[in-house]
Amino acid sequence: MPDDTRPEPDRPDLTIMRAQGDTLALDGVVDLLAAAAEHYASVLTNDGGYRAPGDPPPARRDVDHRVAAALDGASAAFTDAAARYRQLAA
Q: What is the rounded CA–CA span in Å between residue 83 and residue 75?
């Protein structure tokens, strides 16, 4: 079964577009997703509930772990989207 998770290595156009995607992600998409996730990360409790308005904010470490989990989820979604586009191109 062919590996459809990466562009074909002998296609310069796909290599260029992969670099373009890396640049876009590093220049804005990752920061945008992280900022959006940070709000939700700051209101969650460790058991998945919501923090009451008078409760102290969570530790920075907990917020960072939650943002990382959100970015992992976004990564999986982008991988799935890329696979769908590869199927369209087949």
A: 12
| CB atoms near residue 42 (< 10 Å) | 15
| DSSP codes of every residue in 33-83 | HHHHHHHHHHHB-TTS-B--TTSPPPPHHHHHHHHHHHHHHHHHHHHHHHH
Q: What is the pTM of this model?
A: 0.73
List of long-range contacts for 73-81, beta carbons under 8 Å, 24+ apart? 74/33, 79/5
Token pair of 6, please?
């990466």
Quick: pLDDT tens for 24-67.
888 888 899 999 999 999 999 999 999 999 999 999 999 999 99
- Kind and range of the H or E run holding 24: helix 12-24
